[in-house]
Specification:
By secondary structure, the chain is α+β, with helices and mostly antiparallel strands. The chain has helices spanning 2-32, 180-183, 190-194, 203-206, 267-274, 276-288, and strands spanning 38-42, 54-58, 70-73, 80-85, 88-93, 99-100, 110-111, 138-141, 150-155, 158-163, 169-170, 177-178, 211-213, 220-225, 229-234, 239-242, 247-250. Strands 3-4-5 form a three-stranded antiparallel sheet, with no helix packed on it.
Length: 297
Amino acid sequence: MKMQVFYLLVIYLGATTALTRKQEAAEQNRRRVAGPGLRRSPTTAAPIQDDTLYEYEEVELPLQCPEPNGYFPDPEQCDKYYDCRDGKFVEKLCPDGLVFNDFSPQHEKCDLPFGIDCSKRPKRQPPQPSHHCPRLHGYFAHEDARICDTFYYCVEGKFNMITCPAGLVFSEKTGICNWPDEAQKKGCGSRELFNFTCPKVNETVAATHPRYPDVEDCQYFFVCVNGEIPRRSGCKLGQAFDERTSKCDWARKIPECKDWYKGQLTDEELDALENPVLRIRSESNRRKGRPTTESTI
């Protein structure tokens, strides 16, 4: 009798253990469904404690779709990307000259390549060049490497020529005009462009970023950043750089530059620039029909 009870107890414990293992497996499968790329399908297994057993099959998404929905970059080509919907993808290309901006899977955005890291996916579609435009879209340097301050802005293969402000050069790295030392364009440094080198000074003077006149143009001067890096800057129209004060002043007040604007501006135009209040009063009186006899402010 005791032996029969023992066998019945062993059978009961074995059944209970098997049931527990099935429940644990079902619970593990239930937790796995929360992961991406998984789907569940009901089976016809008998119900256990009012809960239905499910079998879970792991479904691998294509490499182009790390998530079921979104826009994702191609791993090798910077202007190619994939539009993923429910795990299915459509391959797309940005317009020639633009690259895919992968800042968010929720946004489909093609941009100019400046500021977008394509180092790990450097390939691009074959270019579609036109006159002055190596690609259909973008900012491009002048074909003549000696012309540093002129570049082209291209849209759909049509160009606009743009000239940088005086003292700046086009940077192929950033697509904007920049100081020569920051643009680092070969053959377009301050020494090559302006034939100027910062004089050697002690640390105290260097910390003030000393200024020096442009000996060929009264309106311009050089700022030596930290006493070493030259940058060409300029005074506003009608003014010149005064070496004695290291500031801009009206050209007619600086002996060596008093005639600098002759042939460019008349005395009346220089008067109007130097005395803007007088010019405004004169224009106001002229509109009101009053005589303009004022000569001083």
